[in-house]
Specification:
Elements lengths: L1 H19 L20 E16 L5 E16 L2 E12 L1 E15 L2 E8 L8 E2 L2 E2 L2 E8 L6 E9 L6 E9 L2 E10 L2 E12 L2 E6 L3 E10 L1 H9 L20 H10 L2 E10 L18 H5 L4 E10 L2 E10 L3 E10 L1
Antiparallel strand pairs: 1-2, 1-18, 2-3, 3-4, 4-5, 5-8, 6-7, 8-9, 9-10, 10-11, 11-12, 12-13, 13-14, 14-15, 15-16, 16-17, 17-18
Amino acid sequence: MLAEIRGGVVLLLVLVSLGLAQNSPQSPVFSWDCAALPGQVCLEPWGLLQLGLSRTDPASWGEQVAFGIKLEATASLEVLEFKAVPALWVDNTLQADLLQAYAASALGDIRLSLGKRLRYGGPWDNTLLGRNGHWGVFAHYAPAALDWGVEAAYLPNPGLAGGQGFVGAQAGPFRLGTFTQVIQGGLQWNPRVGLEWGQNEVYWQSDRGFWANLHTPLPLGQIVAYSLECPPTSEESCWGRGLPEQSDPAVQALLRLLDEGELGLLIWWNPDWNLLGQNDPNTGLPLSFLDWLGQPKKFFLSLNATLRQVRLGLDASLAPVGAYRVYLEFHTP
């Protein structure tokens, strides 16, 4: 364990030093703005500190501290693009992984990539520092003049002991595809269908259930400004009267800052189809539809509000066990 901690500290120092090197004018290949350096190497560090309270039924609430850092390295060399995201974090235990690591190349309308990518994942792949990808070989065909495309991938199992393939299609925000793998006695199919737009996704996958990851602006500034408004002829008490006028430059700057907020919601529900139509072990009668809904394999809910580098959130896992967490999170940059 001591060796792991030492190795983690060394990696952390390396990531921080590489990130700080971006500010040096003698290092033109490093930049905080990766889009400003086409054809060169860009290193973008990202750190996180999370303070929270957690509880797993039937235990009581307890304090929890988690922190980590990751470094997003991208490079574009002629016809090849490279990306790697090493990460190191402490969340009960010290952990390190490559969240992404791949090389990609475009041949006309066909894009090929090899390595670890974020495609075909879901909330079960989430870590403290973001979603963890899957190793594989990926191909995507999308004609530039049309709003549709087809894709295929092979995702090997750990240790290269078999794997599963994926074939799918997309049209605008719509996604449709299926995983397939050879099992004893034939083929196993796991279809996947959903929508993706911006940072949002809504999906169903046969072996994972339903999930939705949604983001929307949170106009806190407008809410505060509305609450401060007092009718000029009103004789009723109005708590906004004792505060600076909205025309004050400092107040306007604060309201603009508050309008940069974002609200995030993640719901993951995976029902147990094997229980549908079965008898209740307590009564011997068939389970009602509502009782079946209340006994899923997985039910997870996450709600958070983000304002620049600060996030306040609540996580609740209601099945298969009850676990809850309230946290305050700081990240940089």
